[in-house]
UniProtKB/TrEMBL annotation:
Aminotransferase class V domain mapped to chain residues: 5-345
Subunit and partners: Homodimer.
Gene designation per UniProt: serC
Role this protein plays: Catalyzes the reversible conversion of 3-phosphohydroxypyruvate to phosphoserine and of 3-hydroxy-2-oxo-4-phosphonooxybutanoate to phosphohydroxythreonine.
NCBIfam families xref list: PRK05355.1
Record-level Gene Ontology MF annotations: O-phospho-L-serine:2-oxoglutarate aminotransferase activity
Keyword set includes Ion transport: no
EC number, as in UniProt: 2.6.1.52
Modified residues (N6-(pyridoxal phosphate)lysine): 193
Organism of provenance: Flavobacterium taihuense
Protein's recorded name: Phosphoserine aminotransferase
Pfam families: Aminotran_5
Amino acid sequence: MKKHNYSAGPCILPQEVFEKSAQAILNFNDSGLSLLEISHRSKDFVTVMEEARALVLELLDLTGKGYQALFLGGGASLEFLMVPYNLMKENGKAAYLDTGTWASAAIKEAKIFGDTTVVASSKEQNYNHIPKGYTIPADADYFHCTSNNTIFGTQMKEFPSTNIPVVCDMSSDIFSRKLDFSKFDIIYAGAQKNMGPAGTTLVVIKEEVLGKTGRTIPSMLDYAKHIKADSMYNTPPVFPVYASLLTLQWLKNLGGIEAIEKINDAKAALLYTEIDRNPLFRGTAAVEDRSNMNATFLLNDESHAAKFDEMWKEAGISGLPGHRSVGGYRASMYNALPLESVQVLVDVMKELEKSI
Ligand code: PLP
């Protein structure tokens, strides 16, 4: 039986992506060759890369607006370093919003490069909310934020307006909700949540922000070089890119981001309503900042943990324990998780209440 997979990433992908990508490993496009044994310069794979890059821009409504999409290696963590390399001027400075573990990891890398201002942080409250009312210095080279905090279950519902370039780590909520993506100059996201298997990172760049640092950038870290090479400066991660294309096609066929947002809203409403109603549980994130992707919650009485754990495992749920820095539970409800899976979890929570 297929599990109800609440894993935070790598995580559930649409079933058809698993099936079609397995087929491509065996016999890609009926060529008699595996996707894994053909040249990345072959027409078949170049077409995959071109389609994937174009579909990203189409789904984000960025086609023809001066943006380029890249599929790079190295994980979202490499972007923590590539962003300052490509945007921070010699003797310049950057502004960061500290909303969680990943935001603070990005800040750590930026500090290696230069003056890095943290405009606000919720660290003292164990990142249980998104800070508001901060000022972004107008003379910074860019502002960096994290749209969804995978570990702490908070999500930015609004983004500040500023005249400096805005960079956003959207690793855990890309393609999940409608935003005006043209407000961002660089968006990056590791594939392994809403897009595909681990091994590639999507970077969407407004080209005009590049080339202004005065730095010499090592080739593999230079966004401009990757753009010039059509995202094939070196051998790209062919399988993760292909599986990402399949997920993007699945999303387009479903009706795009607008359609998935409605489903994601319904899933989050179903679960948060139960967390708030059920006297056995409580959420950990400030209500107004709750993430639609990762819902974090605790049992009010830890002595019920063994029973609850047994019950959800029995119901075919997997991947529910929270990150060690928060404890409790984290239900990751990425795009491919069906509403029915959330209903199964809610039913288990109700059953636990009845049994006590
Ligand atoms: N940023 C966010 C918001 C994440 O959730 C993660 C991983 O979960 C990362 C960055 C790091 O991604 P990677 O493991 O691809 O470097």
